[in-house]
Amino acid sequence: MGKIAAPPTLSTSPILGLFFGLFLAAFASDAVAQKETSTTISVSCGSVGIEFQVCESGVRAWEAKTGHRVQLVSTPNDSNERLALYQQLLAAKSGDIDVFQIDVVWPGILSNHLIDLRDVVDQKVLDQHFKAIVTNDVVDDRLVAIPWFTDAGLFYYRKDLLEKHGRKLPETWQEMTETARFIQKAERDAGNDRMWGYVFQGRAYEGLTVNAVEWLDSFNAGTIVDLDGKITVNNPRAADALTLAASWINDITPQGVLNYSEEECRGVFQSGNAVFMRNWPYAWPLMNAKDSPVKDKVGVAPLPKGGEDGKPTSTLGGWQLAVSKYSKNPEFAKDLVRYLTSIEEQKRRAVVGGFNPTIDALYKDEDVLKANPFFGELYETFVNAVARPARATGVRYNQVSAEFWNAVHATLAGDGDAKTNLASLEKTLERVSRGGRW
Q1: Residue 331 CB neighbour total at 10 angstroms
Q2: Predicted confidence (pLDDT) per residue in 139-166, tens digit
Q3: How far apart are CA 152 and CA 340, in angstroms?
Q4: pLDDT at 74
Q5: Could you tell me if residue 119 is inside a domain?
Q6: Does residue 4 form part of some domain?
Q7: What was the pLDDT predicted at 2?
Q8: Mean pLDDT over residues 304-310, rounded?
Q9: Please, are residues 225 and 429 in contact by the beta-carbon 8 Å criterion?
Q10: Considering the domain boundaries, does residue 7 fall inside one?
Q11: Which of 30, 57, 198, 274 is the most exposed place for a label (fewest CB within 10 A)?
Q12: Average pLDDT score over residue span 128-139
């Protein structure tokens, strides 16, 4: 697999125009009906699953409350493409987007272009959020983003198939492999030749880094780079983890998984053609929608551990809201961020969309738990999720992640074994780090 392409250069304003021609969607009511004193701002929203619709309804409520208008920008699902777009806009000092939805690993990369939000919410409100995520959003003593929703990888399984075939929920990746193979064969023998054992995000993008960090850490193999900045990825346990993952391809996992992101995985699993799936919490309400073929047939558990001496691990995900330095209406943008990250809005998003709140108290809320029972059962999974090495590697994180996911993808595709690819990756990261100095 080749290296990730560099982001577009900043001298490509036609590309920006084309992008907004494709992705900019203004859903505000007719401008003629708006008050002359109203202001229009824009916010970027993701569009995985029903994410865009849930974002839109929150924005519309703020519009009704304030009388101002908001344009929603639907950004690419691929986080690499979204980051490249953001970097292009911000480096050009464009005010086309006022409020950015940013990944949990981007504050250090984008901080120079974002305003300090300490005056948006008082400290008592900020203290309601998970401390680790707030700390993640502080760069050089500036709060450059406010937590909106958090994420951790979950293990989705067909509880009806486990019961049907007399198998218990696997606790290790090795048990998962054997159970997936057993049920896959039995279901195919019974007539479903499209059944697979396990699907995950295997495309060469940030989602593969997330999955592979879970594999490594579950084997006690570290997280690529440790908190002190030391490169740790080239070790025997990491090689064991990736070797096992590579063994799934064309056995319990389709070759096509090498091009899967979240929605491709969900499509296979929700259509009834996979026993196990790794995905984010957003998939839960979609699995249980009225028209879902697997409604009431799905369970959720922590991801398996890497052997008896391993541990169940989920990679920390999630998104924050930030305000551009180049916004022409920063006060209105900050007020929108305040509203969208509030406890009331986070509760609504959890109930209707399955988005994990960043506010601890909501994990004890009856309405939230009724909509998402596993929020309470898997609370420790969410609060103890392992972070990717973004803080240790700083502005070079995106390059580190790209080198990592390319090495993992090559291993999964059979282009070199895990041991060889990890040794090569270590040398590459040494060059990226300038001799270990990030």
Answers
A1: 11
A2: 999 999 999 999 999 999 999 999 999 9
A3: 21
A4: 86
A5: yes
A6: no
A7: 39
A8: 95
A9: yes
A10: no
A11: 30
A12: 93
* Within-domain flag for 291: yes
My answer on whether 127 and 159 are in the same domain is no
Listed residue (388, 424, 384, 393) closest to 407, CA to CA: 424
Which 3 state secondary structure label does DSSP give 358? coil
Q: How many domains does the chain have?
A: 2
Assess whether 326 and 311 both reside in one domain.
no
Residue for token pair 């502080």: 138
Sheet architecture: strand order including 274-279: 196-199, 274-279, 154-158, 298-301
Are residues 92 and 159 both part of a single domain?
no
Q: How many helices (DSSP H) and strands (DSSP E) are in the chain?
A: 20, 12
pTM metric for this prediction: 0.87
Asked if residue 377 and residue 400 are part of one domain, the reply reads no
Task: State the virtual CA torsion across 251, 254, 255, 260 in degrees, nearest 10.
Answer: -140
The arithmetic mean of pLDDT across residues 132-137, rounded, is: 93
Q: Cα separation of 296 and 315, whole Å?
A: 26
- Give the span between the Cα atoms of 345 and 351, in whole angstroms: 10
| One domain, residues 361 and 277 | no
Q: Cα 305 vs. chain centroid, distance in angstroms?
A: 20
H helix runs in 67-218, sequence order:
79-91, 107-110, 123-126, 131-136, 159-164, 173-189, 206-218
Per the CB < 8 A criterion, the answer to whether 171 and 278 are in contact is no
> At which residue do the structure tokens 């070797």 appear?
243
- Summarised one tens digit per residue, pLDDT across range 4-52 is 333 333 333 444 443 444 344 443 334 333 444 578 999 999 988 899 9
User: What's the domain range around 159?
Assistant: 154-315+390-432
- pLDDT, mean over the chain: 91
> What token pair was written down for 387?
């972070």
User: For residue range 388-420, what is the model confidence (pLDDT) as tens digits?
Assistant: 999 899 889 999 999 999 999 999 999 999 999
- CA 47, 125, 389, 151 dihedral sign is negative
Contacts of 401 (CB under 8 A, 6+ apart): 105, 206, 209, 388
The predicted pLDDT at position 226 comes to: 95
Statement to judge: residues 330 and 294 lie in one domain = no
pLDDT, position 22: 39
State residue 78's pLDDT score: 86
For residue 14, what are the contacts with CB-CB under 8 A and spacing of at least 6?
Answer: none
Q: Are residues 65 and 22 in the same domain?
A: yes
Residues 309 and 321 in one domain: no
Position 30 scores a pLDDT of 40
CATH number of the domain bearing residue 234: 3.40.190.10
